[in-house]
Amino acid sequence: MKGSGALGALAINFLILSLLAFGGANAIIPEMQRQAVEVQHWMTATQFAALFAIAQAAPGPNVMVVTLVGWQIAGVLGAVVATAAMMGPSWVLTFTVFRAWDKFKYQPWCMAIQNGLAPVTVGLVASSAFLLARDADRDAIAFGLTAATAALAYWTRINPLWAFGVAAILGVAGFS
Amino acid sequence: MGARFRGLPGSIAAFLGILGLPCVIIVVLGTLYSRYGNLPEVGGGLLAVSAAASGMILAMAGKIATPLLQRRPLESAPVIIAVFVAVALLRFPLPWVLLVAAPVSVGIGFWRRP
Questions:
Q1: Residues near A146 by beta carbon (within 8 Å), at least 6 away in sequence
Q2: Alpha helix stretches (DSSP H) within A21-64
Q3: What is the pTM of this model?
Q4: How far is A124 from chain B (nearest CA, A)?
Q5: Considering only CB atoms, which chain A residues are within 8 Å of B62?
Q6: In this complex, do A58 and B25 lie within 8 Å of one another by their Cβ atoms?
Q7: Residue A127's closest chain B neighbor by CA?
Q8: What's the ipTM?
Q9: Residue A112: its chain B contacts at CB < 8 A?
Q10: Percent of chain A whose predicted confidence (pLDDT) is above 90
Q11: A114 Cβ partners below 8 Å, 6+ apart?
Q12: How many domains does chain A fold into?
């Protein structure tokens, strides 16, 4: 699945995703996974989970998973095309809309939009967690890692990178 | 943020500053993955990190959901559940889900405004 056809599909896919990403990068993981694994067959669910893990553990914004997906499919050019398609529209939108948004932020209709989108974002982010856990949690230890990290991140201020480190060691040692 | 302080050039600088080095790091890691990803140790390690990362995202969903469910449970819970079922269980395409869920959710919030 390499060549200009893949590049075009990459660009279109991530342009659309970019416009849907008002809930942040983690809100569009389900659609990214659906497109890359189920629709375009660019990679397996396990590969997607691995790329996601790399992007989460590496420094930088979570949206870097886009760069990795593009790179995996069409090399350096794929990485550039996917990243630009993903970042471009939201960057232009941020630059042009944020002034207006700042001005209207406390207007009732603007607050209504923000309040209305919040539960949608929660549903999307929860879907991301569910789909990734479904592909990653092959046994009780992996399931325990998911639950423990969730509890740690929800109730404490401990950096989740520590949980990633413990998980990596357990995984390399073959426990999960 | 960059746009707030220095206009367009500031916004471009902030963009490249945030993404430049991480882009290089991520591509190096991606190269390592495509070369060594087939080793059982590497695959196992990444799958375990992925398991932990999905837990972190679950916590993130929980943190956004907690104040919503405390303040306006009747308005937010049905939307959260409906979006989850459509996206996670039924795997509907995101554009269609948003096209329906966003206006409905904003509408519910407006109709039952405090």
A1: A133, A136, A137, B51, B52, B54, B55, B58
A2: 29-33, 45-57
A3: 0.85
A4: 6
A5: 150, 154
A6: yes
A7: B88
A8: 0.85
A9: 106, 109-110, 113
A10: 32
A11: none
A12: 1
